[in-house]
Amino acid sequence: MESTLAEKLLREVSLSITRQRLAVLELFLKEEHPMTPHEVREILDDQERVDQVTIYRVLEALVRTRILTQVPSTDRNSYYCLAERLHGLHAHLYCNLCHRMLCVESPVSAGTTERGKELHVVLSGTCTRCDEEVPDSTI
């Protein structure tokens, strides 16, 4: 039987393959945008019963092994995203209107970071979706 990408990544970092780790990692590989632990639980509740404590433990293990990275935020939430080695160098945009964190092309032209180092660029503003929904009052 062919291994999934999530299974390969877990083996690569010597994490045991559990149902919960697979569910969380497959979600991040599919969605490809930063999510809070609460968002992860809400999405997984539809398919897989995973309690909040387990989600926090899985996220911690995936950050420790550099599969995910924790994105700094000013809204007092913890956001998690695929690490640079899996998602490429990118920045994040926190939308002040819909309060979502999105991956965006990096405004920094640094090729790669040093091994073990992380580069976090978080922009604050309005996402494209909200920008299209809110009429421009200056016209």
TrEMBL record:
Binds 1 Mn(2+) or Fe(2+) ion per subunit. Zn(2+) binds at C95, C98. One of its GO terms (molecular function) is DNA-binding transcription factor activity. The keyword Metal-binding applies. It comes from the Bacteria. Keywords: Iron, Metal-binding, Zinc. Fe cation binds at H87. The keyword Metal-binding applies. Its cofactor is Mn(2+); Fe(2+); Zn(2+). Pfam families: FUR. One of its GO terms (biological process) is regulation of secondary metabolite biosynthetic process. This is Ferric uptake regulation protein. It comes from SAR324 cluster bacterium.
